[in-house]
Structure formats: structure tokens, C-alpha cells
């Protein structure tokens, strides 16, 4: 079975670990969000691609959900000693090697998709990881700081400010000019099922859908598209998705996120059992809906969720 998954960071990566366990023989292609990318110390950092690669490759810092396990921060300390910032983004020594290799290959003329394939050669994530585009897209957030309205990089909003101020707008800068990376549209057109994991619907999945051609390809794929709510009991399971949902005028509920994606894109939607009351509202929006446990407490829980999503996809296909 050929499965295409649109993935952001931690939620997407943990879901993928469950999906691999649920259907070990499936051919899984992950279209990764690159809107979180940031250039630091002359290096290109791709947080969402690295989180998928490290999580599935066995190198992730499990508690954090990002960065490497067994990490040290000597380079970061030395940069700070030189007064070279920013110091609010925790790049570890092992992680630096990934960004050095990536930046070196890009400097040699390789597109990000080729670089990602090369990095995955080492990590063997067990899925094909393709960036949504080889072009530069960086999400910026419009905020009001010290009485001034300004646009800051998503990472500064997310990590330095901890999303403590309202996001007035979220803009994937460069998305309009971006083209899907090689293999993205082909994977979508050849998929038997397409899944939206519980990633951030605005800054992760929303950013991937903002690359011209990707939303249309999914809507026209003619195969079941099933998503899993990142919102449980009216609040994000992790992260601060509610802050960016507000920026696009979407209430932080499982039903509102399904409606936000729309029945033109989504055929099925899983909500957590605590949100069973919203099944009717989602079905009224033309999207098949089931209430199942959605807390990814461990890989087995994630595998059960993945099976539920695939079952719903089959129910949609049979309808
Ligand atoms: N998230 C944090 O909350 N604090 C950090 O210092 C931090 C550093 C970091 C370094 C590399 C990387 O790949 C991810 C990192 N993240 C950090 C997570 C990152 O902000 C998020 O994973 C995504 O951008 C949102 O999904």
C-alpha cells in the first residue's frame, strides 16, 4: 500500500512511528514542512525534516521531541562566549553536524530534496522523506511588540516568545513562488491513501498546502484523505497550535480544524473520544468522522491511531 503523509514536527513524527508499526510493509512517503526552516550561524536548519529523520532513525531526544539524544552544547556555549547569538535556539553539537552537511551540500548546488535523501541514507528512517519544496519558504508571524507591529521568524515566535503574544498573522514567506519538490506530486498521484497526522494545521500542514499545486493534487488524487485532530478537548495536545489557529480565525476545536481543511480536501477525520460530541458536526460538513483515542502516549498508541485512520480510509473508499 502506498501512503503519503504530510508531516510537520513532533506530532507528525510520532504518528509516523506508529504508522510504520501498524503497516510495516507499506510504502510511506512523507512530504515534510520546511516553513520552520531557519538560517543560523550561516547554517540552514530544517527542524521539521530533522525531527522526522531523527525520530524514525532512532536519534531523537525523546522527551523534547526535537534535537538529538545524548546531546552536548559546547559549540553553543562557545558561540555565546563570543557574544554571537541568538542564544534562544538550542542547537546541540551532534545536531550541528547535520546542519553543516546540509549547508555544505546546498552550497555545492544540491537541492534540499537531494540533501535530505543523502542525510536519510545515514538515518534510514524507513520512509521516503521529501521536503515540500526545494525553494526557500520561511514562516513569519506578525506580532505587536512594545507597541510596534512587526513580523518575526516563526522560530523566534515559537521558541523565544513561547507564543506568549497573539499571532496577528502567519505568513509562509516565499510559498507563492515555491514549486513542489521533485517527487511530491508524483507521490500524491500514485498514493492509495493520504494522511494528515496530528501536526499543526496552520504552520505545518497549512504551510505544505500553501505550496501551489499540492492542495490541488491532493484534492484531485481520487483516493481517501484522512486526518487526525491535533486538538483534543478544545486544546492542542502539544505545542501552541491554538495561538496560530486564532491568527487564521479558526477556533481550537477538533471540529473547527476539520472544517478549516474542508470537505474538498478531507474525506475522513478522527477526533478523540472526549470530542465524540463533535462527530455529528464534522459529518454535517461532509467529512466522515469517528471518535477514537488520539493520545500518542507511546508507539503502540500511535500504531492504534494509524490503524484507525487506515480503517476510516477504507470505509471512505467503500462508500
Ligand atoms: N524548540 C524549542 O522549544 N526550543 C529550542 O531551543 C529548540 C531548538 C531546536 C533545534 C533544532 C531543531 O530541529 C528544533 C528545535 N526546536 C526547539 C523545535 C522547533 O522549534 C520545533 O520542532 C518546530 O519548528 C515546530 O514543530
TrEMBL record:
InterPro entries: CofD (IPR002882), CofD-like_dom_sf (IPR038136), FbiA/CofD (IPR010115)
Keyword annotations from UniProtKB, A to Z: Magnesium, Transferase
A UniProt-annotated Pfam family: CofD
Cofactor: Mg(2+)
Pathway recorded for this protein: Cofactor biosynthesis; coenzyme F420 biosynthesis
Keyword Magnesium: yes
Its EC number(s): 2.7.8.28
NCBIfam families linked to this entry: F420_cofD
Assembly and binders: Homodimer.
UniProt-recorded name of the protein: Phosphoenolpyruvate transferase
UniProt source species: Streptomyces composti
Gene for this chain: fbiA
Amino acid at each position: 500500500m502506498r501512503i503519503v503523509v504530510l508531516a510537520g514536527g513532533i506530532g507528525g513524527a510520532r504518528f509516523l512511528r506508529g504508522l510504520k508499526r501498524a503497516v510495516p510493509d507499506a510504502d510511506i512517503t512523507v512530504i515534510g514542512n520546511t516553513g520552520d526552516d531557519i538560517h543560523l550561524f550561516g547554517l540552514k536548519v530544517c527542524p521539521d525534516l530533522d525531527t522526522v529523520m531523527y525520530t524514525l532513525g532512532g536519534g531523537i531526544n525523546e522527551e523534547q521531541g526535537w534535537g538529538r539524544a545524548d546531546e552536548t552544547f559546547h559549540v553553543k556555549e562557545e558561540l555565546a562566549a563570543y557574544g554571537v547569538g541568538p542564544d534562544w535556539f538550542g542547537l546541540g553539537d551532534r545536531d550541528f553536524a547535520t546542519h553543516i552537511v546540509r549547508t555544505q551540500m546546498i552550497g555545492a548546488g544540491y537541492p534540499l530534496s537531494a540533501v535530505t535523501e543523502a542525510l536519510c541514507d545515514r538515518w534510514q528512517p524507513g520512509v521516503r522523506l521529501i521536503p515540500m519544496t526545494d525553494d526557500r519558504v520561511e514562516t513569519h508571524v506578525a506580532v505587536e511588540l512594545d507597541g510596534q507591529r512587526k513580523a518575526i521568524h516563526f522560530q523566534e515566535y515559537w521558541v523565544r516568545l513561547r507564543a506568549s503574544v497573539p499571532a496577528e498573522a502567519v505568513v509562509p514567506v516565499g510559498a507563492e513562488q515555491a514549486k513542489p519538490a521533485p517527487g511530491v506530486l508524483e507521490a500524491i498521484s500514485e498514493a492509495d491513501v493520504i494522511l494528515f497526522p496530528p501536526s499543526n494545521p496552520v504552520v505545518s500542514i497549512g504551510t505544505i498546502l500553501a505550496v501551489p499545486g499540492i492542495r490541488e493534487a491532493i484534492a484531485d488524487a481520487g483516493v481517501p484523505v484522512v486526518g487526525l485532530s491535533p486538538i483534543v478537548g478544545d486544546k492542542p495536545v502539544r505545542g501552541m497550535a491554538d495561538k496560530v489557529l486564532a491568527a487564521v480565525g479558526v477556533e481550537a476545536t477538533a471540529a473547527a480544524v476539520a472544517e478549516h481543511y474542508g470537505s474538498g480536501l478531507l474525506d475522513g477525520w478522527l477526533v478523540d473520544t472526549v470530542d465524540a460530541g463533535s462527530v455529528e458536526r464534522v459529518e454535517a460538513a461532509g467529512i466522515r468522522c469517528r471518535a477514537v483515542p488520539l493520545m500518542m502516549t507511546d508507539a503502540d498508541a500511535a500504531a492504534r491511531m494509524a490503524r484507525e485512520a487506515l480503517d476510516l480510509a477504507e470505509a471512505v473508499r467503500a462508500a
